[in-house]
């Protein structure tokens, strides 16, 4: 195609009416021989006397013969356009079906994108309404000066030359600048925080629905709410391996551990007899009451008596626990894990304010994790089995990115593994799973516990540094370090020196803080240990200045609604028997602009899933959460992953595309579009 002069305009229009095409050329190139009304003349002046230097006509099959005739006429009247009039040919007679529309879109988009786009391109309809929208779309997508519409009223005398009545023409000009500004005004929300970029491309009616439609407002909507949440891609950043095994898996882990230790049946029977002798009853009948009876002191959770049971029987506690678990039914095991507290629906009844566990809720909560964590995960096979089960659960509900918290030293108690080998096994199993499940990512955080030995702390720090700094490792890897455990009497400042190797190697750090203790623990975690994320952070709500700091510096907040409800007490708005109580701070954090995320913590202990955690967050919020807020929480999760920026951005782009597709299917379904075509 011929090159158009730099300052000349390019006119792209549909060939419908020859007169209208000529009227468009008259408007730009006709000079003083044509006069328009006041609005038309003002628009004309806005072009500063610039003329059309190139004309592109979209011609349907029925107009191809007429094109040569029109081109000849234009070149006679406007010789400067000779050789500068081009046809964009469509094979159809008109846009009458979806196939025709698809062909027109592809052809026009390509022509504008590759050759015509720029500040000199003017779009007009040319009298073909079916093509007009596609012309405008192409110009706005790839760049144009704007859209010009000329409407000429019909004269009383049909033989009268309509081009002689230009003062009666209605002329409308909309610049790309105007459209862009109006689109911004209508679409971009001025609220704190943001969501995926592509979501803003939806029509305003869709954005309003996302803001108006709530989840978690009523138990009757639970099924529908969960169905929607399960479809969404999610990141789970706060997930402990040790608290994810259900009763069936615990029994498999126990059997596998005994096999890995090559414990013969005769020895298993001997262990069983010794345990029964201490308890005074068959293992199949063991109850929380029986375990509690071993110690008349202040027993926080019945499972805390398992080491004492093993000691009195003269047995290793790992072996004793494995044999005990093997003889319990899943229901009995569930009762033990819940310390005998189960509601009618089989869920855990957590300690209330009047129970012996008041003030020690975290100890009570952690007891279940100890069983599946350090006690049974003592061999390569048990580690692989536990991790694969967790990844299968996560993958099954569209978790795209999972950070698993592990304590490798805790898996070495029976001497089958070293800390390094334990971590290598986990990394290998994750790599195998990811090879079979494309699009799923799993990484690891090495976790140390406050109330354990200094040697244990330093061992986990050294292990983290060694794996974090390992050059060339692809696939799953160690991406950070976590400090967990009891906050009381263990201030973060106590570990300042221990954390220096982590700081020197630029390791990502997250710290459990403000879960049970005051907000000062969060301050110490941020300022003294340089945490990039805070686990739970429930007490952050008590310090407005620190809330501002967390928001302004983009620190992540890992909230785990079910776990938070169980270790603390928040109002459940589904419980109509309660009219007051402390409200869960998640929505307040979100509205403040804090990068709050939703996570599982311990799936089995809390009897939850990633999808259910979003629903729990909603039911702990007055009026529930809007779908818009849920999508913001989803994005926060992916923005907070411990990955290099390029990998994080790539992950965000993939999830952005998936979210857009899900919302497209729900709010602008293909079936509806076909009916409208």
Structural summary, described in words:
The structure is a single chain. Helices cover 47% and strands 13% of the residues. It is α/β, with parallel strands linked by helices and 677 residues long. Among the domains are: 9-183, Rossmann fold (3-Layer(aba) Sandwich); 246-375, no CATH class. The chain has an eight-stranded parallel beta sheet. A six-stranded mixed beta sheet has the order 3-2-1-4-5-6, sandwiched between helices. Helix 5 links the parallel strand 4 (121-124) and strand 5 (146-151). The radius of gyration is 34 Å and the shape is elongated.
Task: Please give a quick description of this structure.
By secondary structure, the chain is α/β, with parallel strands linked by helices.
Give a quick set of tags describing it.
13% strand, eight-stranded parallel sheet, disordered C terminus, elongated, 28 helices, single chain, alpha/beta, 677 residues, Rossmann fold, six-stranded mixed sheet
Distance between the first and last residues' Cα:
33 Å
CATH fold group of the domain at 9-183: Rossmann fold
Taking strands numbered 1, 2, ... along the chain, how are they ordered across the largest sheet? 8-9-10-11-12-13-14-15
Backbone CA Rg? 34 Å
Average of pLDDT: 89
Most strands sheet:
8 strands, parallel
Number of strands: 16
Strand content: 5-15%
Helix content: 40-55%
Uncertain segments = 353-359, 672-677
Principal-axis shape equals elongated
What's the tally of helices?
28
CATH class of the domain at 9-183: Alpha Beta
CATH architecture of the domain at 9-183: 3-Layer(aba) Sandwich
Broad structural category: alpha/beta
């Amino acid at each position: 195609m011929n090159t158009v002069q730099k300052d000349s305009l390019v006119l792209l229009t549909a060939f419908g009416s020859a007169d209208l095409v000529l009227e468009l050329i008259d408007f730009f190139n006709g000079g003083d021989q044509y006069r328009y009304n006041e609005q038309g003349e003002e628009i004309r002046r806005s072009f500063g006397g610039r003329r059309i230097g190139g004309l592109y006509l979209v011609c349907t099959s029925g107009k191809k013969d007429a094109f040569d005739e029109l081109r000849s006429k234009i070149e006679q009247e406007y010789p400067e356009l000779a050789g500068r009039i081009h046809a964009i040919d469509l094979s159809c007679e008109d846009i009458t079906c979806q196939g025709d529309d698809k062909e027109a879109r592809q052809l026009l988009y390509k022509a504008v994108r590759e050759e015509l786009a720029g500040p000199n391109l003017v779009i007009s309809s040319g009298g073909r309404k079916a093509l007009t929208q596609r012309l405008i779309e192409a110009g706005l997508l790839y760049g144009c000066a704007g859209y010009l519409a000329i409407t000429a009223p019909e004269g009383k005398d049909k033989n009268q030359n309509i081009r002689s009545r230009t003062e009666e023409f209605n002329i409308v000009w909309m610049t790309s600048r105007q459209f862009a500004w109006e689109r911004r005004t209508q679409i971009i929300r001025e609220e704190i925080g943001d969501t995926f970029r592509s979501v803003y491309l939806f029509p305003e009616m869709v954005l309003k629905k996302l803001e108006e439609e709530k989840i978690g407002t009523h138990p009757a909507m639970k099924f529908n709410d969960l169905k929607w949440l399960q479809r969404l891609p999610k990141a789970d950043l706060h997930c402990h391996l040790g608290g994810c095994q259900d009763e069936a898996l615990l029994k498999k882990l126990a059997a596998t551990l005994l096999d890995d230790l090559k414990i013969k049946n005769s020895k298993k029977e001997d262990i069983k007899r010794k345990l029964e002798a201490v308890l005074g009853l068959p293992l199949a009948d063991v109850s929380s009451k029986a375990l509690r009876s071993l110690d008349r002191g202040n027993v926080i959770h019945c499972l805390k008596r398992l080491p004492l049971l093993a000691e009195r029987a003269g047995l290793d506690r790992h072996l004793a626990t494995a044999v005990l678990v093997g003889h319990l039914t899943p229901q009995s095991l569930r009762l033990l894990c819940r310390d005998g507290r189960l509601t009618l629906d089989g869920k855990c009844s957590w300690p209330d304010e009047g129970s012996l566990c008041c003030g020690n809720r975290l100890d009570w909560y952690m007891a279940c994790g100890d069983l599946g964590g350090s006690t049974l995960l003592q061999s390569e096979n048990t580690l692989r089995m536990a991790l694969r089960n967790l990844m299968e659960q996560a993958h099954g509900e569209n978790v795209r990115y999972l950070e698993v918290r592990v304590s490798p030293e805790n898996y070495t108690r029976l001497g089958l593994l070293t800390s390094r080998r334990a971590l290598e096994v986990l990394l290998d199993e994750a790599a195998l799973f990811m090879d079979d499940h494309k699009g799923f990512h799993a990484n690891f955080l090495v976790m140390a516990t406050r109330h354990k030995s200094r040697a244990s702390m330093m061992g986990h720090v050294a292990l983290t540094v060694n794996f974090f700094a390992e050059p060339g490792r692809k696939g799953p890897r160690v991406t950070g370090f976590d400090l967990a455990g009891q906050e009381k009497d263990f201030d973060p400042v106590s570990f300042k020196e221990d954390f220096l190797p982590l700081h020197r190697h630029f390791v990502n750090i997250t710290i459990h803080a403000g879960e049970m203790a005051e907000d000062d623990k969060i301050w110490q975690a941020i300022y003294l240990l340089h945490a990039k994320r805070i686990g739970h952070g429930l007490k952050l709500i008590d310090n407005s200045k620190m809330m501002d700091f967390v928001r302004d510096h983009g620190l992540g907040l890992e909230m785990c609604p079910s776990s938070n409800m169980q270790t603390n007490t928040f109002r459940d708005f589904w419980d109509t028997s309660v009219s007051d109580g402390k409200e869960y701070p998640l929505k307040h954090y979100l509205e403040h602009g804090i990068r709050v995320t939703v996570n599982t913590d311990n799936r089995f202990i809390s009897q939850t899933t990633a999808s259910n955690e979003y629903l729990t967050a909603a039911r702990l919020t007055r009026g529930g959460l809007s779908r818009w807020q849920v999508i913001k929480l989803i994005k926060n999760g992916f923005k907070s992953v411990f990955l290099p920026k390029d990998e994080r951005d790539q992950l965000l782009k993939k999830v952005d595309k998936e979210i857009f597709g899900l919302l497209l299917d729900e709010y602008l379904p293909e079936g509806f579009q076909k009916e409208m075509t």
